[in-house]
Amino acid sequence: MSDHLMNTYAALPVAFERGEGAWLWDENGKRYLDAISGLGVCALGHAHPEVTAVISEQAATLLHTANLVRIPWQEELADRLAGVTGMDRVFVANSGTEAIECALKITRILGHERGLDNPGVIVMENSFHGRTLAALSATGSRKAQAGFEPLVSGFVRAPFGDAAAIQKIAQGSNEVAAILVEPIQGEAGIRVPQPGYLESLRSMCDQQGWLLIFDEIQSGLCRTGKWYAHQHEQVIPDILTTAKALANGFPIGACVARGAAAEAFTPGRHGSTFGGNPLASRTACTVLDIMQSQDLPGQAARTGEHVFKGFRSRLKDDSRVKDIRGRGLMIGIEMDCDVNQLKFDALEKGLLLNITRNNVIRLLPPLIIDEAQADQIVDAVCSLIESLD
Ligand SMILES: Cc1ncc(COP(=O)(O)O)c(C=O)c1O
Fold first, then answer.
1. How many CA atoms lie within 13 A of 195 on its CB side?
2. Average pLDDT over the chain, rounded to an integer
3. Is residue 389 scored above 80 in pLDDT?
4. Which of 11, 99, 270, 271 has the fewest CB atoms within 10 Å of its CB?
């Protein structure tokens, strides 16, 4: 590792030279099956020919103009995102955490318009929303926040999945402006709330005049078998954040809003130099086209069902497995012990996976994996679990 890189990542001892579909090759030509897709980013797999072609063509045509002028590809992307979410307007940023910043700024604007001096946001324990100061302050991890105080104020924390706890907060405070929640918590170890939870948050927000913000940065874009995970529940948020798979690896994020939240900004109130430039926007349009034409939500749902069936049947008698949970191809296997060593063992066997919370095996494979690759992931992960001491 270079001594000149800041010490922010505990990188695995491997570097990849190229990828194709769900496969990666390291510098020595060894092949790996990718069960994490760059943390849920390369949903269409590596080196997707149409994505590669559109990036090459746009790079040779026009990379960047800044938002000083109209950007037709950004307008096209906004139309397409509005189409798949049923929302009204889009702000295009460069990452997930910036999409969260945009959502929080909209909340502050509308909160002040409602007459609140310090508009607050109810956030969840164990949530993850990103690394900028406001997103970090919203994040429910003391470990991630430690040492970065003073944090941004205005966040009130509730246990994830507990609507009654939020009712209590509502009774004790009249400074709340929004609820921010991941419909399925990712970093927390793929936690799916009980059916009806998101609906009860929606009705509380309607009663109280709060905004409902869904962070779908990890759970969105077909990952769970729908375009967005909240669509399993027929609940519509006021604001939705999306990023990761949106351009299959080209950096981009977006904040999507409807109703009053969509109209909060006026020119000059928010912006980004790179956000929504022609290259990022056109790439995202192509990714959305491919997802739509291949029915990627349906494909992820079917492959996910097959994978869950495989895990449940093979691991049913293993007492060290506490839970197998998730939706579509957003999968967590909770173990009763620290399994960090598994990611190194997996690497040796030619499989790339992730461990979160020390005891949850997290799998976010490319959504284009076929049944044989899905079986290979199930077989490799189960063998690794079986070989645990
Ligand atoms: C739910 C959620 N929100 C926000 C983020 C931050 O996104 P980014 O790393 O693109 O800033 C992540 C990243 O993992 C995430 O999973």
1. 4
2. 97
3. no
4. 11
